[in-house]
Amino acid sequence: MTDAQETAADSPLRTTGGAPPEDGGTSVTGAPDPDAAAEPIPLLEPREGIPPVIADAESLAEVVAAFAAGSGPVAVDAERASGYRYGQRAYLVQLRREGAGTALIDPVACPDLSGLGEALSGVEWVLHAATQDLPCLREIGMMPTRLFDTELAGRLAGFPRVGLGAMVEGVLGYVLEKGHSAVDWSTRPLPEPWLRYAALDVELLVDLRDALEKELDRQGKLEWARQEFDAIAAAPPAEPRKDPWRRTSGMHKVRRRRQLAVVRELWQTRDRIAQRRDVSPGKVLSDAAIVEAALAVPANVHALAALNGFGHRMGRRQLEQWQAAVDRAKALTDAQLPAPGQPVTGPPPPRAWADKDPAAAARLSAARAGVSALAERLNMPQENLITPDTVRRVCWEPPRVVDAESVGGALAGYGARPWQVEQVTPVLVAALSA
Residues 6 or more apart from 94 whose CB is under 8 A from it? Predict the structure, then answer.
């Protein structure tokens, strides 16, 4: 039995299939365990059943009091309606804490959860892929001061698969049903099978956290993980994207500035409509249709209707709306047209380094090889050891005097955590000195 599974076995769990297996059938990193024979057990029901959805102030106050009086870490998850609704707001929030049980909260009916957030201030929040849920939780007044990210912990510990289902199965020996992960969570009322799925998503998060903490400690990486978690908790909200229309899928086909203007006008028109109707922009007009119109720059509604994505099911009024956007782009002066690309604030693309600065290209090649070898020795993805952008920046503009102090300072200046500076600095000093 692995250390992580020993931790899991200490926690009594209840499923329709019985008690947890003595061995989960896999090692802590997800590889087959030759000494294990038991099959993973399906986790079919929450321990206390499916809790009622909290949708009024009185019930919410009771939940806040219960969770404030609970003990230990709190498991937190949120469900969005990506692909169905505009934006990334939360449509269900799930929590579980020792002494409080599981709560399912409707943030549409209870849009201000700041009281709950305050009640849990100072408590460690356990999330899986925290950076995905924190923006929508912040919108409703919930932000952790301390957290444990089970997905990131899995990456640092060297798990080959870090999805919640794979982690729960590999470490705890249970199978989570994941059939409702991509449903429309804005649906009301939420069907019972969806609520069961949502409750089970937080059922074992704290158990998984405890097992992963023990495994990280065994590998000597627990302090590294804590620094990563602290950085996530302290990170400010992301800045709005500049020119988000440039992220339209298929933009690489659009080369001329007038065509870029068509993409921009169509994208902005689509975004206004999607926001007004509260639907996903892709349900209003596909990216492929936007690019098709940009390449063709149709002269009129008839020409637009002949393009893919603007077919016979689109009404005349809709076609006129899209053609008006195309016409606005056609009417712009040359000075008003968007530039071919966004301003580059960092180093040029690595493929151009050999021509622009052969010495920098050599430094980057050596640095990449060194970082790759170090990541392999530490058994973690390279991007979690150090971001590729940080490596590029240091190699493009290295310190005037290359030594451990200057390179470490450069890494820290680009946001590397102390553990990353300690591990990566020797590798980069060698690469920059070669």
Answer: 75, 76, 77, 78, 79, 102, 103, 104, 105, 198, 199, 201, 202
Q: What confidence tens digit (pLDDT) does each residue in 279-302 have?
A: 999 999 999 999 999 999 999 999
Contact 56, 100 (CB under 8 A): no
**Residue 179 or 351, more confident:** 351
CA–CA separation, 170 and 190 (whole Å): 30
Q: Which residues contact 32 (CB under 8 A, 6 or more apart)?
A: 25, 26
Contact present, 136 and 85 (Cβ < 8 Å)? no
CA–CA distance, 334 with 331 (Å, rounded to integer) = 9
Distance (Å, whole) CA 151 – CA 170: 13
Please give the C-alpha separations between residue 80 and each of 77, 183, 370, in angstroms, as whole numbers: 10, 9, 40
Cut 0.85: pTM above it: yes
Q: Where would I find the H helices in 120-188? A: 130-139, 150-157, 164-167
The C-alpha atoms of residue 219 and residue 190 are separated, in whole angstroms, by 42
Alpha-carbon Rg of the chain, whole angstroms?
26
Q: Name 54's bridge partners.
A: 105
Q: How many residues does the chain have?
A: 434
361-376 pLDDT per residue, tens: 999 999 999 999 999 9
Instruction: Report the 10 Å Cβ neighbour count for 34.
Output: 7
* Three-state secondary-structure class, residue 10: coil
